[in-house]
Design goal:
In chain A, 58% of the residues lie in helices and 9% in strands. Chain A has 7 helices and 4 strands. A 3-stranded antiparallel sheet of chain A has the order 1-3-2. In chain A, β2 and β3 form a beta hairpin. In chain A, α6 packs antiparallel against α7. Chain A binds a DNA duplex (28 and 28 nucleotides) through α3.
DNA sequence: GGACCCATGTAAAGGGTTACATGATTTC
DNA sequence: GAAATCATGTAACCCTTTACATGGGTCC
């Protein structure tokens, strides 16, 4: 049982779903491809943490609906009693920043402008998602309270990072331009 | 050449270092164990991106100092021209939040209080680190500009997340307590 | 005496991505 | 006609962690 497995259990405790649906719901908070999720669900079914049922569809491909078992619920409760391990972030831009000084202003600006667009899209996505949530999800006790606070977290982080890119871009724009030539200009 | 390799190259472009030192410097921004870094450095030496030299020490174990080659510098420049891929974060607390509603207030509070301490420590670490940096590192063109803006980014994110935990903890504390018993109390 | 820091490495196992494989329906 | 969405699965490869292995010096 790895962390992602518990995440899938957590989503299934809320409502029975297909692997495809779980993938879409977990994506904004934990990147995982279908090729990782489908085998995990199978293994969890073998371990009696889940039950599976095929549901026929006419317009779309048939789907396999998973539901959590009492044993799965028990494991979830046990997991919730343990402290959460520390978050891990991997960001290529961070490593590129280490050697910003070897590059020119325009290359640097291109990197941060692209990232700025990414954060802007994140802000938009989470603002919309939060806006659509009913008021009862803002209360502890609601089944959607967790999702609500997670979206607020993601929005806050995206805004903070967006401000950071703006700040960096401004510094880059105001930086002294490099010497055009090593020789002094005569006229 | 994976992303971590470029990160190590980026640090080595700044100054020649041992694998152990690279590990310590990259840790705050990209989690990687020594068991991953040492073999990577060896492979990069084979590929002529780095040169290695043993330096004898009397009080401490001997160390292997790596330096970037012109070929390594060329690869770094090429990498800087490519857009940075999107950041990936994996946070167990996020998955636990999905099923907050199956648990009680105290369990939830314990999770967020622990995380709050983590963010507080991060804020302290990055504040100190920024405070110690010389003023010239605040300018694009300085070799430490990248490190300076990264620490500002990390500080901003940690503060945003700290505020978030405080907000969640307050909501939890103010939440209606659960019924003590399913039977009405007589007196 | 035990724990921690310095310093390097290998091996095994687990986590995650990319590619391969299929196929109907809908949208541009 | 091409691309995207829905839907599931396997196989190969790469990335990352944990564990094994060594050994001197310092601090409590």
């Amino acid at each position: 049982m790895n962390t992602l497995s518990y995440g899938l259990l957590a989503l299934l405790a809320r409502k029975r779903s297909s692997g495809y649906d779980l993938m879409l719901r977990i994506q904004p908070f934990w990147q995982a491809k279908h090729s990782q999720i489908y085998p995990l669900l199978s293994r969890m079914e073998e371990q009696q943490l889940l039950t599976a049922e095929w549901v026929k569809q006419t317009d779309k491909p048939d789907k396999k609906i998973y539901a959590i078992t009492p044993l799965g619920e028990q494991r979830l409760h046990e997991w919730m009693q343990m402290p959460a391990s520390e978050p891990v972030t991997r960001d290529e831009l961070v490593l590129k920043a280490f050697c910003l000084w070897i590059t020119d202003k325009d290359t640097a600006l291109a990197l941060f402008r692209k990232r700025s667009i990414f954060y802007q899209e994140q802000i938009h996505y989470f603002e919309q998602a939060i806006h659509k949530m009913p008021d009862e999800s803002h209360q502890f006790g609601s089944q959607d309270f967790g999702l609500y606070i997670l979206r607020q977290k993601a929005l806050g982080t995206a805004r903070s990072n967006m401000e950071w890119t703006t700040w960096v871009i401004d510094m880059l724009k105001n930086a002294a331009p490099p010497e055009v030539s090593s020789e002094p200009q005569h006229h």
